[in-house]
Structure formats: C-alpha cells, structure tokens
Write a structure and sequence with these properties.
The protein is α+β, with helices and mostly antiparallel strands and 641 residues long. The protein is built from 25 helices and 22 strands. The chain has a 7-stranded mixed β-sheet, sandwiched between helices. Strands 2-1-3-9-4-7 form a 6-stranded antiparallel β-sheet, with no helix packed on it. The radius of gyration is 32 Å and the shape is elongated.
Length: 641
C-alpha cells in the first residue's frame, strides 16, 4: 500500500515532468510504429502524445484567450502542432505528425521547468510557516489548554516550556531564559530575556519556562510579516521578465493575425486555390512557431549555469550570470555569512601565575554541566586537556556558574558575578576586558577560591576569506559594500572593521534589511544581497541578485536566493562577478544571444517569404525550422568554454 501512495504523491508533485516524459516516450513509440509501417498503432500513440504533452499548454492558452482576451505562445504552439498533424493526415505525409508532436514536447519540457521554479517559491513559504507551531499553550482560568494559533487574542497568556518554539510575538510576564533569535534577527549570541522583554514567534526558548502575554494579533507577528514580504518580493517581476512577457504576447498576436490573413486573402487577391492557400497557411504556422527563438536564449543561459557550477557557484537562473556582472552595490549579512555563526574561544589572558591551559581546565570543570552556548564554546576549546569535573554545580541565569572542583570553589561568569566571590579584579585584566568588549566580544571571568585566574574572550569567528573577498570586490569596482545585521552596534562594527566594510546597519529586523536593499536599489539600481538566515529571506528576494551560503544557509534562504555558494566560500562571489563582468566587457553573452535571435528570426523570415512565394513545401519548412533550432542551440553552447 505504501508504494502506490508514494507513486501517487510523486505524480502529483511532478505532474508536468511526468507529462513531458510520457509525451516523449509515446512520441518515440509512434515514430517507431510509423517507421515499421504500423499505421494503426501510430495513430493511437501519437494522438495520446499530443493530448498528454499539450494539455497544460492548451489549457493555459485558452484560459489566457478567454479570461484575459490575450493570445500567447502556448496557444500558437498548439495551433501550429495541430496544423502540422492536419497537413500530415491530409497529404498522407505522416512524418509531419511527428513534427507537431516535437513542438508539443519542447513546450512540455519548458512547462515542467517553469513548474519547478514555482514549487521553489512555494517551498520557501512553507519552510517559513513551519517555524511556528500550529498550537499554543494558553492559561485559561488557571489551567493550561492548547488552542490553534489562529484563535489567539490580544491579552491571552501563553506558557512556553524549555526547548520549545515561541508561538507568537509577546511580552514576558514571568520567567527567565535565553532565546536563540539567530534565525529571525541574526544575533550571533542567544539573548537573555526576562520580565518585560519582547519575544518573537519562531525563536527557540532555552532552559527556562516563560509566561508570555500576547500583545498583537498572531498574523501581525514578525515571522508572519517575513512570510508576506517574501511572497511580495518574489512576485514582483523584474523588467527583463516583463519585456519577455510583452514580446511573447505581441509575437503571438502578429503570427495569428498573419496566419488568418494568409488563410483567407490569397484566393481573392492572387487567385490561389483554397487547397494551396490552406496548405501554405498551416506551413506558415509551423515555421513561425517560436522554438528557435526559445532555443536562442535557453542553451546560452544553461551554458552559463554549467560554467558556474564547475566553480562551485549554483546559478538558479541563468540570467543572473549577466545581472551579477552589473552589480554596483553589495549588502552582506553578518552572522553565518561574514562570520562562521559558531561561537569560539577567541583568546585567553591569565594572571601571572597561571597558564592558558590552567584557566581553560578550571572553566571547563563547571561548564561541562552547562547547556549555554558560551559554555559549549569553552568545552570545545578545552579539547583534549585533562580536566576534572566539578560537583555541586549551580548556574545563575544571566550571571555565571559555580561549583566545587578538587575541593576548591570555581566561579565562571561576568565581572559583577565573579566580584561577589573574589577579593579584587586585576587592573591589567580589566583594561584588556574593556578593549575586548568595545570590539563586541563576550568576556568570561574565571576564578578559583578567592583568586582570579584569568579571562576568556568568546566571539563569533570571522571567516578567514572574508577580508580578502571584500578587498577583491572593491578592486572589481563595486561602488558600495555594506553590512546588515540584527546584532548590536559594537559587535557589528568590530566585524566590519576586521573585514574592511565601512558602512554598517545594525540592530535590524528582517523588514529593515529589505528597506535598506530598496534604498540601495534606488541609488545603485543593481544590488546583490548575501545571506544565510531566515531573517535574510525578504532582502534576498528583493535584491537584484540574492546570494545564499550553501552549507550554513537556512532552507528558506537557499530557496529564495538566485545564486548559491555551494561550499560557503565567500571568494566565489568575486569569481561569479568577475565571470559576469568579463562576459559583459567582451559582450560574449549578449553577443551570442543577439546572434542567436538574429539567426532564429532570419530563418523564420526566410521560411515565411519562401512559403508565401510558393518555393517551399511543408517538409522543407519543418527541416528549416528544426535546423534553425539546432543551429542556435549549438551556438549557445559556445559559452561552455
């Protein structure tokens, strides 16, 4: 029972692809039957190929015709294919039925590719929606009751237990915890929250139970606004796409009108007989079908995609190869993009009588019992050191942790917390700590008994290639490079200084990042956004070119972006831009595409003139039509070099 269910689900999810495959399979069998002289079998198989492969195009074409009163290429293709089949039956030149089926197969494949692009958008929205639970635990008359998120009202009190996702935006009424907000706000460190603090839907609660008051409707929560922003940005068609749509509709109108005139006027104007007139009109529809025009562009773009993939750059849309070459401004997310997104021990400074290993072994003895990200970073830094675990460990949220190791009290935490246990904080260490904190690092003091042993700086590590990448982009002529982050000003400026970025926007919500991108687009037109988190998704969708980190990137960022760096290697941005600019500088892509369009249109015009003058028949027209498509396809593949 399970296998049929999976097969049914696969068929629903990939209906267009299944239709194209069936169309191609039936077309092959029909061609084979004709070749063997089995006409009866061929006349069963080929109509099935027409129906299966052309159903979606016919439906879309007729829908556009009746609802929008517009003609499009889908309808033109169906008419051309049916015209070829009709001529084949009329003249008993049955190979023409094959030609019509080939036209349908080409469009069926195109429709399947377009369908996958639409599914990508839908998946990104579903991934965002999965960040919030479907239900919330509400306090009603002193009892906890689970209700759907949609039924929450302003003023409701909800309970969130450790490890659970926050179901909606609200204000903490009681409790204390650390919340991982990296996916929503981009902050690299978990944020400590207590009574009166605002929490966001989709963020992950740490170790403390919270009681939260709903202060805005669930549909107005930050994550819901992100969803709407992504939907809006992804449905805004770029100018190039609008031009293609206008050209397609105009081309279809001209061909249909010309076909009608060619099918009706010649008997009255030049005395053609009706058989010749209809034959040439149908030939006209076949040779005017825009397959060669489609092939003039698609192989070129696919070649660009292949070239990028060989260098670890995944172009989801071949047009982005040209667009990235025009980029004048780039915005970088901080956490997980310019940095690794993982907390690490940056440096250890000790008082005169202790070593770094002494400080780490003492700190790890109590941090072994901690689930705080800072504690985990210290444990990781201690590595294979020979430490002894502490007993009677007690964590004080937001302050530090204490325990007993080797019969001595160990204290690890912030300065105020540690001062309660020691005689004094060494002045030389205080000066270093002040410098670290100004650079946006988190500082942990380590003491044993009543004596301070040293301090540990914790930081989100900057990617080793980040500074070189920024320098390379500036040399390529990028006019503006900015950093966008939800993190605090100190940390943001510290990272920006380390990588060579002068302009920083800190403490941003997702919609703020989107607004910055829009502002940059007004000034620089073509703007790239590089990010990895859910909070980057609206900005990635809005940017002229959205670039996501392939390994560390969230599903939503990967789905929303136009380009994915498959190995999280920032230097590949400069490679992609250099490739795009070289293409523009040499006009390689533009020249090849223009050459292909000229060749395609020239073939169509020659075939049309030849058809009008009566110098070609349908087989020659089909050969010329298919020949032009092969020629421009081979021409487009030159970009693989």
């Amino acid at each position: 029972m399970l296998y049929p269910q999976r097969l049914s689900q696969f068929t629903r999810e990939h209906a267009d692809t299944v239709a194209a495959l069936l169309c191609g399979f039936l077309l092959f069998l029909g061609w084979l039957a004709l070749h063997l002289g089995w006409l009866g079998l061929a006349f069963l198989l080929l109509p099935a190929a027409y129906v299966i492969g052309g159903y979606e195009s016919a439906r879309e074409g007729l829908t556009t015709l009746f609802k929008e009163k517009e003609l499009d290429v889908d309808l033109l293709m169906i008419v051309a294919a049916i015209g070829a089949a009709s001529l084949g039956l009329w003249r008993r030149e049955y190979h023409l039925i094959i030609d019509g089926a080939i036209l349908i197969l080409i469009f069926a494949i195109s429709g399947a590719l377009e369908g996958y692009a639409m599914q990508r958008t839908e998946r990104s929205i579903r991934s965002l929606m999965s960040l919030t639970p479907d239900t919330a635990r509400v306090l009603l008359q002193g009892r906890e009751e689970e209700i759907p998120i949609t039924q929450l009202k302003v003023g409701d009190k909800i309970v969130v237990k450790p490890g659970e996702l926050i179901p909606t935006d609200g204000i903490i009424l009681s409790g204390y915890s650390t919340l991982n907000q990296a996916a929503i706000t981009g902050e690299s460190l978990p944020v400590e929250k207590t009574v009166g603090a605002e929490v966001f839907a989709g963020t992950l609660n740490g170790y403390g139970a919270l009681q939260i008051k709903v202060h805005k409707p669930a549909q107005s929560s930050l994550i819901q606004r992100v969803i709407r922003l992504v939907e809006q940005a992804q449905t805004e068609a770029p100018p190039s796409q609008e031009f293609i749509d206008r050209f397609e509709k105009g081309y279809a109108k001209v061909i249909v009108v010309a076909g009608i005139l060619l099918a009706t006027l010649p008997p009255f104007l030049w005395g053609w007989d009706w058989e010749t007139t209809i034959y040439r009109a149908l030939t006209f529809l076949v040779v005017a079908s825009p397959c060669a025009l489609m092939a003039a562009i698609m192989p070129t773009l696919l070649s660009g995609i292949a070239n990028g993939a060989r260098q670890g750059i995944l172009f989801k849309n071949g047009a982005q190869l040209e667009k990235i070459g025009k980029v004048r401004a780039i915005a970088f997310d901080k956490t997980g993009t310019l940095t690794t997104g993982q907390l690490q021990v940056f440096q250890v400074i000790t008082s005169s009588k202790y070593t770094n290993n002494d400080v780490l072994k003492t700190a790890v003895s109590v941090e072994l019992s901690s689930e705080h990200p800072i504690g985990k970073a210290i444990v990781q830094a201690a590595g294979d050191l020979n430490w002894v675990g502490a007993i009677e460990v007690q964590a004080i949220p937001g302050q530090g942790i204490v325990g007993i190791a080797q019969e001595q009290q160990v204290i690890v935490g912030n300065a105020i917390f540690v001062q309660q246990y020691v005689t004094n904080l060494p002045e030389e260490l205080q000066e270093i700590v002040q410098s670290w904190e100004q650079d946006g690092k988190t500082v942990v003091w380590v003491a044993r008994g009543t004596e301070v042993m040293g301090v540990i700086a914790i930081a989100d590590e900057v990617r080793v290639e980040a500074a070189a990448t920024i320098s390379r982009l500036k040399k390529l002529g990028v006019e503006q490079i900015v950093m966008l982050t939800g993190d605090n000003q100190e940390t943001a400026h510290s990272v920006a200084k380390a990588v060579g970025i002068d302009r920083v926007y800190a403490q941003l919500l997702p919609e703020d990042k989107l607004n910055v991108i829009r502002s940059l687009q007004q000034q620089y037109q073509t703007v790239a956004m590089v990010g990895d988190g859910i909070n980057d998704a609206p900005a990635l969708a809005q940017a002229s070119v959205g670039i996501a980190m392939g390994v560390s990137g969230s599903d939503v960022a990967l789905e929303t972006a136009d380009i994915v760096l498959m190995a999280d290697r920032l230097e590949k941005i400069a490679v992609a831009m250099h490739l795009g600019r070289r293409c523009l500088r040499r006009q390689a892509t533009q020249l090849i595409v223009k050459q292909n369009i000229v060749v395609a249109l020239s073939f169509i015009m020659l075939l049309l003139v030849g058809n009008f003058l009566g110098n070609i028949n349908l087989p020659i027209g089909v050969i010329g039509h298919e020949g032009s498509r092969v020629l421009v396809t081979l021409s487009g593949l030159r970009l693989l070099k």
